[in-house]
Amino acid sequence: MPRYTTEAEKHFIVGLYLSGESIAAIVARLDVSVCEQTVKRWVNRFEGLKTNPKSGRNKITTPQQDERIVNQVVAAPLKPSVSTVRNTLTRT
């Protein structure tokens, strides 16, 4: 049965990588719990998150509108519906 990398191990791998450790040094620090291929996989995934553009639709709200939405939700949790937010945004 394959062993899955825990969230703690993933964070540890990326943290060591960010602090300047080499792949080999990270593998050595983790002993036998994680193999070199796994460390490379998580480092590559992390690097991909930093460099690849996000897919999906472009934002349609401004940072100011985002802030107003967040403030409205914080002030009255569970009250604003989609139509309430939409109406608030169109008033400005």
What profile does the largest beta sheet have? none
Rg over CA atoms, rounded to whole Å, is 21 Å
Overall number of structural domains: 2
Taking the alpha carbons of the first and last residues, their distance comes to 58 Å
Mean pLDDT: 80
Assess the beta-strand content as a share of residues: under 5%
How many H/I helices?
A: 5
Order of helices and strands: HHHHH
Structural class: mainly alpha
Overall spatial form: elongated
- The number of E-state strands comes to 0
Identify the quaternary structure here: single chain
Low-pLDDT ranges: none
Report the helical percentage. Answer: 55-70%
Description:
With 92 residues, this protein is mostly helical. The protein folds into two domains: 7-51; 61-92, no CATH class. It contains five helices and no strands. The chain has helices at 7-18, 23-29, 36-51, 63-75, 82-90. Helix 1 crosses helix 3 and helix 2 packs across helix 3 (36-51). The chain is elongated, with a radius of gyration of 21 Å. The N and C termini lie far apart (58 Å). The mean pLDDT is 80.
Give descriptors for this structure.
92 residues; 2 domains; mainly alpha; 5 helices
